[in-house]
Amino acid sequence: MSDLEDDDVPQLSSHALAALQEFYAEQKQHTNPGGGEKYNVGRIEENWQLSQFWYSQETALRLAEEAIAAAGEGGRVACVSAPTVYQKLRELRGEDLAVYVFEYDRRFAVYGEEFVFYDYNNPLDLPEDIAAHSFHLVVADPPYLSEECLRKTSETIKYLTQGKILLCTGAVMEEEAAKLLGVRMCKFIPKHTRTLANEFRCYVNYDSGLDHDV
Questions:
Q1: Nearest alpha carbon to residue 80 among 109, 119, 44, 48
Q2: E-assigned strands of 41-160?
Q3: In 3-state terms, what secondary structure has residue 76?
Q4: How many Cβ atoms are within 10 Å of 101's Cβ, its own excluded?
């Protein structure tokens, strides 16, 4: 049997081929971020089904700078359901700050040993090597605006922190946040890459730069 002639083999148009190549490139980017842009905010696309809404670049930077100041030189920071703060911290400080991302979305496992799988429904189900009160600062952004979610996430926060807490959640959670964590609302207003229906605010339990020069 003779080989098929080239004319018999289906060919994609140049437009379709370009679109297919772009699709595969995007899929690779979303599932396997790497290279020099590994820690760029937005490198891993937000998943609305997981209630993921990324901070704007300006907000991620401001929160990362606050975390660096609050944790101090050589400090340890836990980012609980706040992966964009983790990414910005890593982008800014490299390896001279111990930072961990506690996250349900396993795509963030690309960050290796600094990724800790976390499900707020099991707030204390953490690896044995994550010791109690082992972080100078905990930055947390509970995925849902509900009393249950905040209450369970608060268990994790109180287990991890040596004292300092930076919480980002809806303005409607102010009273509950104060009751559970002893935090107060800051002047700084965080922004997201997309407009959300609910107003978001930051809360702290220490003297914070987020309350100054806003």
A1: 119
A2: 76-80, 98-103, 115-117, 135-140
A3: strand
A4: 26
CA distance 86 to 183: 21
Query: What is the C-alpha to C-alpha distance for residues 150 and 168, in angstroms, rounded to an integer?
Result: 11
Whole-prediction pTM: 0.77
Question: pLDDT (tens digit, 9 = 90+) per residue, 66-77?
Answer: 999 999 989 999
Cα–Cα distance, 160 to 151 (Å, whole number): 15
Q: How many CB atoms lie within 10 A of CB 157?
A: 24
d(CA 52, CA 44): 11
Q: Contact at 8 Å (CB) between 112 and 138?
A: no
- The CA-atom distances, in angstroms, between 15 and each of 19, 24, 25, 135 are 6, 14, 15, 52
Q: Quick check: 78 and 158 in contact, CB under 8 A? A: no
Instruction: Say how far apart CA 178 and CA 200 lie, in whole Å.
Output: 15
Residues 140, 155 contacting (CB under 8 angstroms): no
Q: Are strands 200-204 and 115-117 parallel, antiparallel or unpaired?
A: unpaired
Tell me the pLDDT tens digit for each residue of 170-201.
Answer: 999 999 999 999 999 999 999 976 665 578 89
Cα dihedral 157/163/167/171 (nearest 10): 110
- The answer to whether the beta carbons of residues 127 and 104 sit under 8 Å apart is no
Q: How far apart, in whole angstroms, are the C-alpha atoms of residue 76 and residue 167?
A: 16
- Residue 56: which residues within 8 A CB-CB, separation 6 or more? 191, 192, 193
